[in-house]
Design brief:
single chain; three-stranded antiparallel sheet; four-stranded mixed sheet; 31% helix; Aldehyde Oxidoreductase, domain 4; alpha+beta; 20% strand
């Protein structure tokens, strides 16, 4: 989750917000980041237009990896939204000819005059008047979270059958539990957990490099590198456990990759439970299972 991230967000005259970020979206991160900005401003997420920009344009952002985008870039969006709120308070104060300390920004995106309850203006009403009160409002967020503050945790349960004659392993049911911090976009979080599980299942049962004596990979295409398909896995039940991360404004944790690791151990343990034979090599493909059962005088 660690690494710097920068976000630039601008308020448009129609009341919508353009959100420019430097993190490539490889798993639904754009709406997750947009939601965090919208939450601070109290506006609908549909009024936020997230765009991925070149980091030469908006400031350096570290790589999209380590399950870090919703965490670090979401945090940068949070800071950018706070910057926008501060500027909008100043603009409303100009219109009402009062001090900015006399203006408050409510959670429902309404700015109110503290001393005169009849004076209020909504986010959308103020947006067209920004140019007349000092120019466009652009919020900026720049963060560099420390390592270790956004760790994620997962555990798996797997039910499977082993054919002792062929060594084929068939997964009957797979349940993945994961502490996701705060699930910003629950359906996307569920998909990330399921995707991680499928990747781990592939590592556990099939995926393997075959190298020549010259160091050339012999199965370098998807025709012969055995990755799992929808026919190889059952419906994966994702159990979202929300324990907000104290190291993030919205309690976010990384999600996408934590659940890649547990399937290997869970499947190995299930195979051992089914056969009575401890398996300790990867991948646990049919050929290996047959050899393991034969070497242990399996009955």
């Amino acid at each position: 989750n660690a690494g710097p991230s920068n976000v630039v967000a601008g308020v448009m005259p129609d009341g919508k917000v353009t959100l420019n970020e430097g993190s490539v979206d490889i798993g639904g991160s754009r709406p997750a980041v947009a939601q965090q900005l919208a939450e601070v401003l109290g506006i609908p997420v549909t009024d936020v237009n997230p765009q991925v920009m070149d980091t030469d344009s908006i400031g350096y952002t570290s790589n999209t990896g380590g399950s870090g985008v919703a965490y670090k870039t979401g945090w940068a969006a949070y800071e950018a939204a706070q910057d926008i709120k501060r500027q909008l308070i100043e603009r409303a104060a100009i219109i009402w000819e009062t001090d900015s300390d006399n203006v408050e920004y409510d959670d429902d995106a309404v700015l109110r005059h503290k001393s005169d309850p009849e004076l209020s203006v909504t986010f959308k009403e103020l947006a067209p008047n920004l140019n007349a009160t000092g120019g466009p409002v652009v919020g900026r967020g720049s963060v560099n979270p420390m390592r270790g503050v956004g760790g994620s945790y997962a555990a798996n349960l797997v039910d499977l059958e082993v054919d002792p004659e062929t060594g084929k392993v068939e997964i009957l049911r797979f349940t993945a539990f994961q502490d996701v911090g705060t699930a910003v976009h629950p359906s996307y979080v569920e998909g990330q957990i399921q995707g991680g599980a499928v990747q781990g299942i592939g590592w556990a049962l099939n995926e393997e490099y075959y190298m020549s004596d010259d160091g050339e990979m012999l199965n370098a295409t998807l025709l012969d590198y055995r990755m799992p398909t929808s026919l190889d896995v059952p419906m994966i039940d994702a159990v979202i456990v929300e324990v907000p991360n104290p190291g993030h404004p919205f309690g976010v944790r990384g999600v996408g990759e934590a659940n890649i690791v547990p399937p290997l151990a869970a499947i190995a343990n299930a195979i051992s439970d089914a056969t009575g034979v401890r398996v300790d090599e990867l991948p646990m493909n049919p050929a290996y299972i047959v050899r393991a059962l034969g070497s242990k005088d399996y009955e």
